[in-house]
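Researcher: Good morning. I'm working through a list of sequences from a screen, and I'd like to move beyond sequence-only analysis. For each chain I'm collecting a predicted structure so we can compare shapes side by side. This is the next one on the list. No need for commentary yet; just the structure.
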Amino acid sequence: MNAIPYGRQHITEEDIKAVVETLKSDYLTQGPRIAEFEKAFANYVGSNFAVAVSNGTGALHLCALALGINEGDKVITTPITFAASANCIRYCGGEVVFSDIDPNTYLLDIDKVRLLLENSPKGTFKGIVPVDFAGRANNLEDLRNLADEFDLWIIEDACHAPGGSFQDVNDVTQFCGNGQFADLAIFSFHPVKHIASGEGGMITTNNEERYQKLLQLRTHGIVRNTDLYTNSIDLAGGKEDYPGWYMEMQDLGYNYRLTDFQAALGLSQLSRAKEGIAKRREIALKYFDAFKNAKFIKRQSGIVNGHAYHLYIVEVENRLRLYNHLRSKNIYAQIHYIPCHLMPYYQELGYKVGDFPYAENYYRHCISLPMFPQLNEDEQAYIIHEVNSFYNAI
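Model: Good morning. Structure tokens for this chain:
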């Protein structure tokens, strides 16, 4: 069997054609493909606005900036995530406060968050960064109610979950990043994600003021709208109006722009997004059926229809031995993630082993089996066979 990675991008001839057409156009960056991608993505998730950026980490950083994180501001997030979910707060000088996961969903445990808030003076915390881990959507309606009670904002880290959803109290499907409950949401277009653009990210929101702020921060804090200029026309070098070349840097922004050829690839990939989600759910269901009676496996709880299945994670005994066995059979499973609070950087800030027992227990057992739309039936059957044969032999 050829090597089977845990995730893999899928580039079609249509994708290549879209990129080549853009490479032959007048714009490689700051051209029309950016706005097209933003509009299409906003339509896909159901938000009012979308801002394309260079990567998911940049998206998180811009969200923290737009929400005004300052030195010492405290923000709650999960320890089971890629480090960027927490690091974006540190970039702005804020303090990251981790809270443990629900051992069944692997998501931030809302009851533990409530306890943390209730046991702290009101105003201690500024916001929450919940992560739709592995593609399972948080119940943002419940989190929004909690956030409103304690005057907090929400950044939804939906990097794993474009197309994912949950059912609200009225049994209405609420898609990740639609802006109904989170103030801002972010997505990633890294190659192993649902939509690949090489690197890239997106921020979605329903708040026009924050949308305009994000556009400014994305491009060095520069403004090109004459209605917003603060310098005089005379200083700008004009007479009756501002000259055409004029612009103002009104804030300390960054260069977090996406290129046009990346946006072209993202647009092409987006056209197949629903098909990709359906295939991921089909693969997940086969794994579920194959292991449903296995005593050696525990699965993330969740409903197939709402889960975006960026990852298919199981908890197992003898994890290291299984990991090495699969690699010996050309199956490159992966581990997601080492808990953030146990990274040396965060341990230096005071976190230690034992702080979050559910997160740490999850890490001792978790393994991500291959999950990507092009995983074929023979490959999946081979993976299932090798997992079963490993446990049958011990």
